[in-house]
Amino acid sequence: MKAFAAVVTLEEALERYLAALWPQPRGEETVPLERALDRVCAADIRAAEDLPPFHRSTVDGYAVRSQDLLHASPRAPVALQLVGSVQMGEVPDLRVEPGQCARVPTGGVVPTGADAVVMQEHTQAEGQAVHVFRPVALGENVLHQGEDARRGEVVIRRGTRLRPQELGLLAGLGVVDVPCYLPPRVAVFSTGDELVPPDCQPRPGQVRDMNAYTLTAQVARLGGVPRFGGILPDQAAVVEAALRDAMRTADVVLASGGSSVGVLDVLGEVVPRLGQPGVVVHGVAIKPGKPTLLAVCDGKAVVGLPGHPASAMVVFDLLVRPVLEAMLGIRPDARGPRTVPANLVAPLTAPRDRDEFVRVRLRWQEDVLAAEPVLGKSGMITTMTRADGYVRVPTGTQLDAGTSVEVRLFD
Amino acid sequence: MKAFAAVVTLEEALERYLAALWPQPRGEETVPLERALDRVCAADIRAAEDLPPFHRSTVDGYAVRSQDLLHASPRAPVALQLVGSVQMGEVPDLRVEPGQCARVPTGGVVPTGADAVVMQEHTQAEGQAVHVFRPVALGENVLHQGEDARRGEVVIRRGTRLRPQELGLLAGLGVVDVPCYLPPRVAVFSTGDELVPPDCQPRPGQVRDMNAYTLTAQVARLGGVPRFGGILPDQAAVVEAALRDAMRTADVVLASGGSSVGVLDVLGEVVPRLGQPGVVVHGVAIKPGKPTLLAVCDGKAVVGLPGHPASAMVVFDLLVRPVLEAMLGIRPDARGPRTVPANLVAPLTAPRDRDEFVRVRLRWQEDVLAAEPVLGKSGMITTMTRADGYVRVPTGTQLDAGTSVEVRLFD
User: Fold this and answer.
1) CA geometry: angle at B153 spanning B165 and A377, to 5°?
2) Which of A32, A225, A268, B306 matches a 20 to 30 Å C-alpha distance to B276?
3) What is the ipTM score, two decimals?
4) B107: in domain
């Protein structure tokens, strides 16, 4: 029986795991617009009407026929006849004929006959005459009917995470009930006989559990629903029972610690018993994070992460985040730029057998971002608190100081 | 009486406003660690003990004295005497003498006498002898007591926004009650006779209010507590009553629309009556956003934003965000890089009298980020939904295609 697969590259690990798990949103729900921030849209949203629904003035001024003002200038202003005033929120009962104009406020309806609006600053009113000091282009200062969104047009694509501006667009189109994907439920466990909860005073040889907090917070930041299941001892029966129980209500089960190659390898023993097909990847050629375990158990994702807090966080970002994003329903091309260009300020060398992910701090230096490696062992959480993101150094490669690199920013 | 100040630059507007308002956190509270994500720490956090509290092994292997292995190699392995095994979570009752070693798991206590840990992969056990195939450096595979955080050291500075990694560090140090600043309360109003709520069908000449959603979401994303106060008609008495009422419970009052130079300039009329010193800035040399109004009324921030949704969002980011960040208590140097370098793919020209803020979409092109301007009038919310951030074009300047620019990413 081959319980463990061989160590594979990051790309191979992810490809195999996504193929075996095929992560999908678990369903949809309708969310009121005022609670839809950061949710992921579950349908293409089409404009049911034109936005704006009429030609709107974008300034305070006078609706005019641009032809009338072709030769207007400060020295030779053109006098137009004022035929009325547009009230906000109402359709004016007037028509602008050649030689005429109508007062229009910002956001007001541009009346029939007019094809542009001249700003108030470029005019002088004198009784029923308005003197205009400059020409306007056809359509100037007018937001045309349907210019923002045309009726029938897809304005927000399925799989878009809703930012403040998407909420505004939905409001403008009257979409107050938003179809959204249900977020994945993620159970988080910490394993290890040395761990105590943070509100306990560790006895000699014990340490406080950090991964419960980092991992649940990473899940929450992505938009998943985390639930911390507790600290588990290094006992196969206890771990198996806890994971089985969690799998009944969670879509993803994360357990940190215990996935290394030592005597504590409870997870490697337990996971194959939890369901089919079991372990997909055990061992990834990355530093930190080599002892990562990726399993699929009867349709659920079960992931063993390293126990070191910084390692667990980096592996979460590299391997769990893509799974959760797929479950969240985020369209791959809608995720925006996740990396930024920067210049390394110190050389970095990866080991001969693994890609290394080095935490860096970023700062502007002249007109480039400088990436300064944060030194320290991957067991140190402060390598994460002192960093803004991380850089990938390919296997066996030295990146010289000054090399242009892509920095993955922390969420 | 001088109700309106002259148009000023963005920097001057911000400087004057921050000086007049002097925004500060309104207080502090203790937040349980599990709810402290994204909150701002209100005190310097010192480590009450060393982290880790003892020398920990970072691998599964054998605790050794590095001197013993100076000449170890695959051809000439060094045999050490196994004197015991460290149990997780316990302090071993043993001492490693010259020529000896002890089994130690990842995270286990490195026993007295040992000064390094050799990985299991580089050894072969044979009864009570362990053959080691390579040397180890002094301290190798050991996370020393206090190496992550030293007792008494400030590990999180006041004014730090707490990310997942900071929560982990706090957990590791046993800080389960976190001193945090109280978030600012922000009342949001939309003004304009043409506005209807998004669940209403606009009559001809009316449009649905978008700013209620974009601005409250922007406040929420920053960590403020937004409350939408409703759509107000263009009537000074109604607006004044609503703003007065909001000022009783809000630290900041935002009103979009109505701050332009037209007949609808209710806000400019009302704000000076709300308290001292009143209007600080009315008119900023930026596009979009010229008609912005910044006021201080009896210690409260009152801000009039343009009615155009995209303009209101950009002005929020430029002028309201710094105010809220100060009220949130975020240390200016703790805000991380907020801009990224990119290359413009098309030329941009600002007007002669204002800096222009142009929305851009970012994509990787070879090893640089390319910034593609999103075209469209500032009345169009889709200029925001199609963008990842914006670029500043200084007054009267043309930026050629290929110019290296700083892009402010949307939050």
Assistant:
1) 50
2) B306
3) 0.94
4) yes
pLDDT in tens, B274-308: 999 999 999 999 999 888 999 999 999 999 999 99
Q: Is the pLDDT of residue A288 over 50?
A: yes
**CATH code, B244:** 3.40.980.10
Q: Which of A261-265, A321-325, B397-401 shows the lowest per-residue confidence on average (mean pLDDT)? A: A261-265
Task: Decide if A115 contacts A139 (C-beta within 8 A).
Answer: yes
Calculate how close chain A gets to B383, using CA atoms only, in Å.
Answer: 8
Domain that holds residue B76: 56-143
pLDDT value at B1 more than 50: no
Distance CA A385, CA A99 (A): 68
Mean pLDDT confidence for A257-284: 80
Same domain, B64 and B208: no
**One-letter amino acid identity for A118?**
V
User: Into how many domains does chain B fold?
Assistant: 4
Backbone angles phi, psi at A322, to 5 degrees: -60, -35
- B376 interaction partners in chain A (CB closer than 8 Å): 147-148
The verdict on B317 and B350 lying in the same domain is no
Best B59, B106, B314, B338 member to test A by mutation, with max A CBs in 10 Å, is: B106
| A294 and A279 share one domain | yes
Structure tokens at A292: 């990562």
pLDDT of residue B336: 67
Residue A366 lies in a domain: yes
User: Is B262 a residue whose pLDDT tops 90?
Assistant: no
The dihedrals phi and psi of B347, each to the nearest 5 degrees, come to -70, 150
Do B186 and B330 share a structural domain? yes
Bridge partners of residue B130, in order along the sequence: B80, B125
Residue A27 has pLDDT above 90, yes or no: yes
Asked whether the bond before A52 is cis by omega within 30 degrees of 0, the reply is yes
The residue from A165, A181, A197 where one domain ends is A181
Contact A155 B377 (CB under 8 A): no
Name residue A166's beta-bridge partners: none
Q: Residue A224's pLDDT band (boundaries 50, 70, 90)?
A: very high
A325-384 tens-digit pLDDT: 999 999 988 766 789 999 999 999 999 999 999 999 999 998 899 999 998 988 899 999
Tell me which chain B residue has its CA closest to the CA of residue A291.
B59
| C-beta separation of B290 from B308 below 8 A | no
For A176, the closest of B87, B198, B337 (CB atoms) is B198
Peptide bond into A288 cis (omega under 30): yes
Stated as kind and residue range, the H or E segment containing B300 is strand B300-305
Q: How far is A298 from chain B (nearest CA, A)?
A: 30
Query: Among candidates B277, B243, B278, which has minimal Cα distance to B258?
Result: B243
Q: Determine the Cα–Cα distance for residues B179 and B32; give it in Å rounded to an integer.
A: 9
Residue whose entry in the numeric block shows the structure tokens 């982290």: B51
Q: Which of B181, B170, B189 is closest to B252 using CA atoms?
A: B189
User: What's the start-to-end Cα distance of chain A, in Å?
Assistant: 40
Contact assignment for B37 to A166 by CB distance below 8 Å: no
What amino acid is encoded at B242 in this protein?
A
Is A34 close to B164, i.e. CB distance below 8 A?
Answer: no
A264 lies in the same domain as A367: no
Residue with tokens 């890089």: B337
Q: Is the preceding omega at residue B288 within 30 degrees of 0, hence cis? A: yes
Q: Is residue A320 part of a domain?
A: yes
Identify whether the C-beta of residue B229 lies closer than 8 Å to the C-beta of residue B242.
Answer: yes
Distance between terminal CA atoms of chain B? 40
Which pLDDT does position A89 carry in this prediction? 87
Same domain, residue pair B188 and B278: yes
Q: Which residue is listed with tokens 């938009």?
A: A223
**Average pLDDT along chain B:** 94
Query: What's residue B335's pLDDT?
Result: 63
- Alpha-carbon distance of B262 to A37, in angstroms, equals 34
Residues B43-77 pLDDT 10s: 999 999 999 999 999 988 999 999 999 999 999 99
